[in-house]
Specification:
- The chain is α/β, with parallel strands linked by helices.
- The chain folds into 2 domains: 255 residues, QueA-like (3-Layer(aba) Sandwich), CATH 3.40.1780.10; 60 residues, QueA-like (Thrombin, subunit H).
- 14% of the residues lie in helices and 28% in strands.
- It has 5 helices and 19 strands.
- The strands form 4 sheets. Strands 2-1-19-18-14-3-12-13-17 form a 9-stranded mixed sheet. It has a 6-stranded antiparallel sheet with strand order 5-6-7-10-9-8, with no helix packed on it.
């Protein structure tokens, strides 16, 4: 297993980046990777149910994306608002940052906004002259690689059909393939992790062991924990779900699950923060299968999936996905790793 950042790079033709979702959510293609046989199949997402075994349980992230993207009244400054800190005080990002140093001002909704402080990672503490609901006129904070401002279609499609808990700045994109009709056909439960802006933060250290992940808040309900512990196998939907479950698994003892052939970590109901960085090698103690999208080169998401599938096998699959013209990233196709 490699700890070198350069070993998690690949070249993707620009035309394979999905800039828009498909007309119907569950029409996505699904590449199926079998870790035991090292085989690859090309299927449709609608075939997912046929790969699940009795007593398998899907675990999905029910976070809801905030309409956090705003612009100043003169449209010169972009503000992804990250977190409300108090009356009229926010933590946010600023683009371009060089125009908004400490003390700089602009207006949003005809209310003056001032930069009070610049934090270590570049976020700003922003103070408004009066309290403003910045999300009321905000838009979906689409990832930079989509290369456009969101529109009304994204208000629905950059949100899972099961999104319930507001707080994310990016969608848990593996969940975007599910429809309201298809999800009830499969045993499932929900956890919550609010995806933060750090999801798109690049890794700068050539040695992966030197990288530090951003922290994100999560919660696992008592009902979800009970269902997870009763399941034969956990099928994690998305890398955010993996990080929550493996964080929880690190805190508890192994146990013999019902109808489960090996030891697995017991998951307790809890709320907390996780900055878990999963990269090869990693001992997975909670999940047995993973549904995920295709991820950016050199990203922490690609490293997590490499840890689960094996880097060489995963990169062989990515090469085949490029040759077969799969659609990549948030609005793209998916991969099931068994």
């Amino acid at each position: 297993m490699s700890l070198r950042l350069s070993d998690y790079d690949y070249q993707l033709p620009e035309k394979l980046i999905a800039k828009r979702p498909l007309p119907v959510r569950d029409e996505s293609r699904m590449m199926v990777l079998n870790r035991g046989s090292r085989t690859i199949e090309h299927r449709q997402f609608r075939d997912l149910k046929t790969f699940l075994r009795p007593a398998d349980l899907l675990v999905l992230n029910n976070t809801r994306v905030l309409p956090a993207r705003r612009f100043s009244d003169d449209h010169a400054i972009e503000f992804p608002f990250l977190e409300k800190l108090g009356s009229a005080r926010w933590k946010g990002l600023v683009k371009p940052g060089k125009k908004m140093r400490v003390g700089a001002t602009t207006k949003i909704d005809n209310v003056e906004l001032r930069v009070e402080e610049i934090l270590a990672e570049g976020e700003r503490i922003l103070v408004l002259d009066q309290d403003v609901d910045v999300y009321a006129r905000g838009s979906m904070p689409l990832p930079p690689y989509i290369g456009r401002v969101s529109d009304h279609a994204d208000d629905e499609r950059y949100q899972t059909v099961f999104a319930q808990q507001p707080g994310a700045l990016a969608a848990p994109t593996a969940g975007l393939h599910f429809t309201a009709e298809r999800l009830p056909e499969i045993p499932h439960t929900f956890i919550t992790l609010h995806v933060g802006a750090g999801t798109f933060r690049p890794v700068h250290s050539e040695n992966l062991a030197e990288h530090r992940m951003h922290s994100e808040s999560f919660s696992i309900s008592a009902e979800a924990a009970a269902r997870i512990n009763e399941a034969k196998q956990i099928v994690a939907v998305g890398t955010t779900t993996v990080r929550v479950l493996e964080t929880a698994a690190q805190k508890t003892r192994p146990f013999k699950a019902v109808n489960f052939s090996g030891a697995r970590a017991e998951i307790a109901a809890q709320t907390g923060e996780t900055d878990l960085f999963i990269y090869p090698p990693f001992d997975f103690r909670a999940i047995g299968a993973l549904l995920t999208n295709f991820h950016l080169p050199r990203s922490t998401l690609l490293m997590l999936v490499s840890a689960f599938a094996g880097r060489e096998f995963l990169f062989r699959a990515y090469g085949e996905a490029i040759r077969e013209r799969y659609r990549f990233y948030s609005y793209g196709d998916c991969m099931l790793i068994l």
